[in-house]
Design brief:
The chain is mainly beta. The chain is about 5% helix and about 50% strand.
């Protein structure tokens, strides 16, 4: 299971993982020295690392939470995940442990809940540490748009925040909801369902990602293009690689001509002079 895909940060969701320019990834970082790593400010604090230990500083560089942890996530929804001695828990912005470090795995809070794992079983807790959905799933993803993917006995579906199964656990793999649709896979083919489980985009693609700005990139037989939220092909699957749309623009690659360029949502080529940078493209 690709946990990095199931638990994307909000920033990555917004950008679609595209790197068009350095400005896209610009963020405010405290101007400090003496650390091995300084993260962006999030909720007023920045994660820092020194000698393989993590803590948090404010925008002035003042240490707010000492570098005592083996691992840490940035703050989100008022809490940050921290790791020590192989266990995960959560602290608030004063450094107080709000949720004890007792889980084998946890992720950042999303929509008021976080997915946690202990003894190979997954469930959900709220920001007080209360178990809201029991840890009885074999795998689970974060909540997004009110639903979370869960897996049991090798099959995936979706539950709501009460734990009720909304979309039956019948798929070989799933993604997460974005713009009202989530990708699902059966028999090595991908398509999309809405939040009632209705198939909106037929399961016929070799690869598919999440919807962004009304379109999603998909591939068939090694070629990439875009479909809309009705399943209609808007930009033909004719490219050897395509990035997500961001502000109405996507980067594409035509290996037959060796050209990389930008297109708009009508599939028209934009005559820009700067060269696109591709994320995740494997030239095989």
């Amino acid at each position: 299971m690709k946990r990095t895909i199931r638990h994307l940060s909000s920033a990555l969701l917004l950008t679609g993982g595209i790197l068009y320019s350095q400005n896209l990834w610009a963020c405010e970082r405290p101007k400090v020295y003496g650390y091995d790593y300084v993260d962006c400010l999030s909720d007023g604090l920045a994660k820092v690392k020194r000698d393989n230990k993590y803590g948090f500083i404010d925008k002035t560089g003042k240490v707010v939470i000492p570098l005592n942890y083996d691992g840490a996530y940035s703050f989100g929804e008022g809490l940050a995940k921290v790791r020590q001695n192989g266990k995960d828990g959560f602290i608030d912005k004063t450094g107080k442990v709000v949720i004890p470090l007792k889980y084998d795995m946890a992720y950042n809070f999303s929509e008021g809940l976080t997915v946690v794992e202990r003894n190979d079983k997954w469930g959900f807790i709220d920001n007080t540490g209360k178990v809201v959905i029991p840890l009885n799933y074999d795998e689970a993803g974060s909540f997004n748009e009110g639903l979370a993917s869960v897996e049991r006995n090798g099959k995936w579906g979706f539950i709501d925040k009460t734990g009720k199964v909304v979309i039956p656990l019948k798929y070989d793999e799933t993604g997460y909801f974005s713009e009202g649709l989530a990708r699902v896979q059966q028999n090595d083919k991908w398509g999309f369902v809405d939040n009632t489980g209705k198939v909106v985009v037929p399961l016929k693609y070799d690869s598919a990602d999440f919807f962004n700005e009304g379109l999603v990139r998909v591939s068939q037989n090694g070629k990439w293009g875009f479909v809309d939220n009705t399943g209609q092909v808007v930009i033909p699957l004719s490219y050897d690689w395509a990035e997500y749309f961001y502000n109405g623009i996507a980067a594409v690659l035509d290996r037959s001509t060796g050209e990389a360029f930008y297109i708009n949502k009508q599939g028209e080529r934009l005559n820009w002079t700067d060269k696109p940078i591709f994320i995740g493209y494997n030239d095989q």
